[in-house]
Design brief:
Elements: H1 2-8, H2 24-49, E1 53-59, E2 67-76, E3 84-90, E4 95-96, E5 103-108, E6 114-118, E7 143-144, H3 150-156, E8 159-165, H4 170-189, E9 198-204, H5 209-214, E10 219-220, E11 222-227, E12 240-244, H6 250-262, H7 268-271, E13 285-287, E14 293-303, E15 307-313, E16 319-320, E17 329-336, H8 342-351, E18 366-367, E19 379-395, E20 398-415, E21 423-438, H9 443-483
Length: 484
């Protein structure tokens, strides 16, 4: 009695096997249904494993303070490291010039290939005395040099000190009296004919353009020290180049020349190649650039307000000819915010694949113009709109901040000016930020959909099989009626 009542609530009642019939059409429909189930299951599984995010724009609620880090790596094939300066300014009045603590410079050639170790990391010493305070009538004591006789003089004397100047330059004119007076004093102390250890010369860069360009002269006056002897064997015949940045009055110049001669024996023309004595270290002397290009890399911290990063030729004691300054450049990196580790960068691309490349928009961009072109010797400006993106994931009912990244759009332009060309990166942080939230899918929802797929396909296939079977029966009845 009880068992019969239990049987009455059976949802899955069975038809006796002798009342069921297998058919070829049913088998085909069953195979199609099975394939459809597998296809829909694969699509549902792929959708379950895919990243699902929601994006919203909110007021920037950054917790990284009021400062923003900017990393950069920029190559200038025609700007010398000797005067390359990184400056920062903003709308609040901040103005920092020639940042050196977090900036490194490397000399490169015109093909952007490094030509040596890091160029002097320290700042250029400040020149307080640009000449003698009392102007006196001077007699030329230095030797005029040109492209025709420069090499012969540089190989003849162990030390050749050359003043590369321009007649229109204010600082060159300030230096001229003390330079000629120093040359006269040195000539009297170390006669070129009898002693022959040192000679002071001068080059007019408005007349000897190619010679000055060969020695990468971009600021006037530039005092170069050319040595031969102690380095000629070790450096395959190359001469030692130094730039003098010391005081420019007669007393200081004479003292500097004395230090150059101090370790050179009087018989320098005979013993120069054997001189291995140590040279004194003078903070006013630094290696001169062996090539005319420079790679500037490093980072600066700026306030989170509109501002500019400017890279230019800068000096408080030199003049620059705008027609000789070319700020063409190639951007390897220019990015905002903290540098991401490879793992975090992969996570960033996984969650926001559509933002790929916007965190370093200028990377790989080239802004190269050559001398003589219409657009040569112009200021190049980049306008950057910076937006912060914050990635948040919700797992195990907890909100976890994955990372923060800054994206920006860039628009560049060439600006003709009468002043010395510069490169400007104008940046403007947005007061809003993009919030990208990862929304994980429920596993129970996935199982429910899988059951719905299986049951739905099975039911639809059964309906189609029933329709097909009933249609065949009706067709057979009609045929039998006609036959009768």
């Amino acid at each position: 009695m009880i068992s019969s009542k239990l049987k009455s609530v059976d949802f899955y009642r069975k038809i006796p096997r002798d009342l069921t019939e297998a058919s070829l059409s049913g088998a085909g429909l069953s195979i199609v249904a099975a394939l459809a189930m597998m296809l829909l299951f694969g699509m549902e599984l792929s959708n379950y494993l895919a990243v699902n995010t929601t994006t919203s724009v909110i007021v920037d609620r950054s917790s990284d303070g009021e400062f923003l880090r900017i990393d950069f790596n920029i190559s200038f094939p025609a700007l010398s490291c000797e005067f390359a300066s990184v400056d920062v300014s903003d709308v609040l009045g901040t103005n920092r010039l020639n940042i050196t603590k977090t900036v490194r410079k490397f000399s490169i050639d015109r093909n952007l290939v490094p030509t040596g170790s890091e160029f002097h990391p320290g700042p250029i010493p400040i020149v307080n005395k640009h000449g003698d305070d009392v102007e006196e009538d001077h007699v030329d004591g230095s030797v005029p040099l040109s492209s025709r006789n420069f090499d012969s003089y540089s190989h003849q004397y162990p030390v050749l000190v050359v003043n590369f100047y321009a007649p229109w330059c204010y600082w060159s004119n300030r230096l001229k009296p003390s330079w000629e007076k120093t040359a006269k004093i040195i000539r009297e102390r170390y006669d070129p004919e009898m002693d022959g250890r040192i000679l002071l010369g001068k080059v007019d860069c408005t007349e000897e353009v190619d010679l000055c360009r060969r020695h990468h002269i971009q600021g006037y006056p530039s005092i170069r020290v050319f040595r031969k002897g102690s380095d000629i064997k070790d450096n395959q015949g190359h001469h030692d180049h130094e730039s003098y940045y010391g005081e420019r009055d007669t007393e200081s110049l004479v003292a500097a020349m004395e230090t150059y001669v101090a370790n050179i024996p009087k018989e320098a023309h005979v013993l120069a190649l054997e001189d291995k004595s140590n040279k004194t270290v003078d903070p006013a002397k630094r290696p001169a650039p062996m090539t005319g290009g420079c790679r500037v890399e490093g980072f600066v911290r700026v306030k989170r307000v509109p501002g500019s990063v400017v890279i230019s030729a800068r000096s408080g004691s030199h003049s620059f000819d705008p027609s000789q300054i070319n700020v063409s450049h190639y951007v390897t990196q220019f990015s905002f915010g903290k540098k991401l580790s490879p793992r975090m960068f992969y996570e960033f691309l996984r969650l926001t694949p559509y933002l790929r490349g916007y965190h370093d928009r200028l990377a790989g961009q080239s802004y190269i113009v050559k001398h003589g072109e219409v657009n040569a010797n112009v200021t190049i400006e980049h306008y950057l709109q910076v937006v912060k993106t914050e990635l948040v994931t919700q797992r195990s009912s907890k909100e976890l901040k994955v990372l923060e990244e800054y994206e920006y759009t860039a628009h560049s332009s060439l600006v003709h000016s009468f002043y010395v060309p510069v490169v400007k990166f104008h940046f403007e942080p947005s007061p809003m930020q993009v919030l990208v939230t990862e929304v994980p899918k429920s596993f129970s929802h996935f199982i429910t959909n899988v059951c719905a797929i299986i049951g739905g396909v099975f039911t639809v296939a059964g309906i189609l099989d029933s329709i097909f079977h009933n249609t065949l029966r009706m067709v057979k009845k009609v045929e039998l009626g006609k036959n009768i």
